[in-house]
Amino acid sequence: MTDTPLKLFNSLTREIEIFTPVHPGEARVYSCGPTVYNYQHIGNMRAYVFSDTLGRVLRWKGYDLTHVINITDVGHLTSDADEGEDKMEKMAAKEGRSAWDIAKFYQEDFERDLARLNITGKQHPRATEYVEPMIEWGKRIADKHCYELDSGLYFDVSTIEDYGKLARAVTEEGEGRIERLEGKRNAADFAIWRKTPEGETRQMEWDSPWGKGAPGWHLECSVMGEALLGFPFDIHTGGIDHREIHHPNEIAQNQAYCCTGGLGKAENSGARIWMHNNFLVERSGKMSKSSGEFLRLQLLVDKGYHPLAYRMMCLQAHYRSELEFSWDGLGAALTRLKRMVMAVGRWKALQEERHAADWHADSWERHPKTREPVERFRDAVSDDLNTAEALTAFEDVLSLKKIDPDCVLSAMSEMDKVLGLDLENLSREDLRIRPKSAEITEAEIEAELFRRKEAKIAKDYATSDAIRESLAAKGVEVMDGDPLGWEWNLA
Fold first, then answer.
1. Which of 392, 394, 393 lies closest to 423 in space, CA to CA?
2. Could you report the per-residue pLDDT of 207-216, keeping only the tens digit for each?
3. Which residues contact 2 (CB under 8 A, 6 or more apart)?
4. pLDDT at 353
5. Phi, psi (rounded to 5 degrees) for 298
6. What is the pLDDT of residue 46?
7. Could you tell me which of 456, 474, 373 has the C-alpha nearest to residue 415?
8. How far apart are CA 325 and CA 301, in angstroms?
9. What burial letters (b/e) apply to 193-232, b meaning 16+ CB within 10 Å?
10. Beta partners for 149?
């Protein structure tokens, strides 16, 4: 099978480009990670499903992948536009714990969420591990590109070419969310180092040539990207919100550090390709942090949805399109996942039967019925990660008839290396998650359903109906006639 070139949309050039690695045979990817001051919203997690899919495609195409997701545990202020309090310090004061404890707790929770979404194999360096290199970086660029104010060291964006090209900023004031700080030369100038205000003590502060304090938020990604991947590396990813301020500032630092020219040459930005996933939108407004029912992955599990149903939901939309969240939409994604699990289960059962009869196994590459949809799958993911079309090709393989099950299962395994739905291991039992609010155990449900089945066999319909109503009162929907054969569902 001839491979198809991988085409990706570069946010910097606003063009689809064929991926050509900086280092032959390698792919080096940096993804902006979370600020670990709180639980991650599922909207944040969409960025990591996207970057994981990108990494899986690169590995699938034979590249030796190095993928870094940084952990911001210092320096990120309450406004992304470089204003306000440090998020870590603020949460530490609110919860009565040290900033270090806050960072450890929420990083561990983030990493659990990654594992539940089948996102693995990434490096997670913390900003606080790179403060000294950040200070050295600041020293290197300070004379030509920075100036000091009472509050810290600031980067002068007028000292580099094409500032804001990534965001397509066209006004003199730059991006609209940036507030003017007294003394700044340009509204878009940003902090490289923030001094601890006189008379105050931060939990996280270090000595520097510009006074005791902490690095600015944008500096960590430049420093860790260069240290771990080298400039230029292949791909930098993040949410579309980073395209407006954080990434233009990161690019400016990279240009200054490398003494490079303008952004007509993408490599001068520090990465050859910049990629951004679009927002997850939740239009009811009932799931924000302020509403109390924070829409995080654990809430989905508490309501009875397997985390991989959310991964499926993300894969059903193109990463550059807005994805609207609804419980009905999540339920539909779970149903689609259930159908896949059941289809895989049927093929596995047929495979066992055939092998018991000394059936000769074959691979998907040798059979035209499996080779054709795998090629369509390959073309879809090579076309700027079109996972929506790839899923259709995947389902076409599972729906084949009268074909060696080894061909189907080997094709499924090959494609799931990209999708990451873990269909070789996922079972019906895994997908049946008991909602936190449920007042009945699965064993009790199964026992009642067995009793109901016996009543129906005996034509004791009154008892059968009574059992059904009793289960309904406990939040169990008996799914008679369900084509999936799931039998029951916890509402």
1. 394
2. 999 999 999 9
3. none
4. 86
5. -65, -35
6. 98
7. 373
8. 15
9. bbbbeeeeebbbbbebebbebbbbbbbbbbbbbbebbebb
10. 152
Q: How far is it, in rounded angstroms, from Cα 190 to Cα 83?
A: 10
Stated pTM of the model? 0.90
pLDDT for the residue numbered 2? 58
Q: At which residue do the structure tokens 């205000």 appear?
A: 197
d(CA 70, CA 290): 26
In the prediction, which pLDDT does 405 show?
Answer: 92
First to last CA, the chain: 46
Which residues are bridge partners to 8 per DSSP? Answer: 17
Closest CA to 387 of 425, 418, 431, 429: 418
Q: Residue 246, Cα to own-chain centre: how many angstroms? A: 18
Q: Worst-scoring range by mean pLDDT, 13-27, 69-83, 275-289, 355-369?
A: 355-369
**Tokens coding 380:** 């879809």
Tokens of 479: 């799914």
CB 72 within 8 A of CB 141: no
Reported as a single tens digit per residue, the pLDDT across 416-458 is 999 999 999 999 888 888 777 777 777 888 888 888 888 888 9
Of 452, 444, 443, 439, give the one whose Cα is nearest residue 479: 452
